[in-house]
Amino acid sequence: MSASVLLMGTRVESFELAEVVEELAFRLDRAQRTRVFFVNAHCFNVARSDAHYRACLERAEIVLPDGSGVLMAARVLGVELRRNLNGTDLVPLLLRRVAQDARSVFVLGGRPGVAAEAAKRLAERNPGLKVAGHAHGYLDAASEREVLAELDRVRPDILLVGQGVPLQESWLDRHWDRLPVGLGLAVGGLIDFTAGVHPRAPRWMRALGIEWVFRLIQEPRRLARRYLVGNVVFLADVVRRKVTP
Question: Can you spell out the DSSP letters for 133-157?
Answer without folding.
Answer: EEE-S---HHHHHHHHHHHHHH--S
